[in-house]
Design a protein that fits this description.
Length: 315
């Protein structure tokens, strides 16, 4: 059998393989250029960028939990302008494919971000629009209000020609409805999903572990939850779905492809195992061959529950 084709398509975007890094867990990306073959990844998703630089939330803003992480970073970042001038050229010079993750406090800020990116005509693959950050005041509003979400996506669509990947929240809403609203607004893909709201307590000191009290849960704990949502969203919309949540080994990544994700993003696992994406990539051809698939595309969606996607889970 020939070498399996690892490429995947997400709307108009074709990637050489389906392994991406998740926003906020890979620095800005350029810090790792000397240590890892970053250009081999399908793409790198930037840290969340806002119009102006942000300091983020007071520390402590990260805590370890039994099966993952709790973070309340609060979108600390250098701002879009600095990223476009200082970081993006370094990544592009090395042939790294880049997706820009952006977040606004208001519709106007989201639109300004879209216009700024458009005006710079940077070499990026897509804009990942974060409507799902649990760590800043109002960060979830856009994802949780379906009417607002559809309007926001439509407004961004009118302002940029870049593909729009909308990163959804799994908190408080049916993610299928959210995905439909994004699709209605003109999204090119949905990213399922951001972190789940959570908290942790230091019992001896009778204090919350995070300064802000609550944060977003990521890591292995959320994998089954997000796998369910990815399966459901794939059945609910016609646009491509990108999966992110709790990938920690080869199997947890491939599970997402089997239920229909066209690509996966690896997040918290990078903090403990930065080589994980490259190991998954190295093993993928053998797995495909052993399972009788000639390509990643034919593997994608080959495991689906035979029932309407709108059915609620049985408890
Ligand atoms: C420290 C940290 C910072 C994050 N920052 C962002 C961010 O700026 N924008 C965003 O859309 N998601 C952000 N996320 C969410 C991740 O991109 C990802 O959706 C989430 O962690 C679930 O994936 P995982 O379980 O593989 O970590 C962050 C997550 C962590 C742990």
């Amino acid at each position: 059998m020939n070498t399996p084709d690892l490429s995947t398509t997400i709307g108009q975007v074709t990637l050489p393989n389906p392994l991406l890094t998740a926003s906020g867990t890979f620095g800005y990306g350029h810090e790792l250029l000397e240590s890892f073959p970053v250009q081999r990844l399908g793409a790198v998703v930037s840290k969340g960028l806002t119009l102006r630089p942000r300091e983020g939330n007071p520390r402590p803003r990260i805590a370890e939990t039994r099966c993952g992480l709790l973070n309340s970073i609060g979108l600390e970042n250098m701002g879009l302008e600095a990223y476009l001038h200082r970081v993006l050229p370094l990544l592009r010079e090395r042939g790294v494919r880049v997706v820009l993750n952006v977040e606004g406090r208001s519709e106007e800020e989201f639109y300004a971000l879209a216009e700024k990116v458009e005006a710079h005509q940077p070499e990026i693959l897509a804009l990942e629009v974060n409507v799902s950050c649990p760590n800043v005041e109002g960060g979830l509003w856009f994802g949780q209000d379906l009417g607002l979400l559809e309007r926001l996506v439509r407004g961004m669509r009118a302002r940029t020609r870049f593909p729009l990947w909308i990163k959804l929240t799994p908190s408080g809403v049916d993610v299928r409805e959210e995905a439909r609203a994004a699709e209605q607004g003109g999204a090119d893909a949905v990213v399922v999903a951001n972190t789940y709201p959570g908290m942790a307590v230091d019992v001896a000191r009778r204090r919350f572990l995070l300064h802000r009290g609550m944060g977003g849960v990521s890591g292995p704990a959320i994998h089954p939850l997000t796998l369910y949502w990815v399966h459901e969203v794939v059945g609910a919309v016609g646009i491509p779905v990108i999966a992110v949540g709790g990938i920690h080994d080869f199997d947890s990544a491939v599970a997402y492809l089997l239920v229909g994700a066209r690509a996966v993003q690896i997040g918290s696992a990078l903090f403990v195992d930065p080589e994980l994406p490259y190991r998954i990539l190295a093993r993928l051809p053998d797995y495909l061959r052993d399972q009788g698939f000639s390509s990643v595309s034919s593997l994608i969606g080959s495991l689906r529950l035979d029932r309407p996607a709108t059915q609620r889970p049985q408890t």
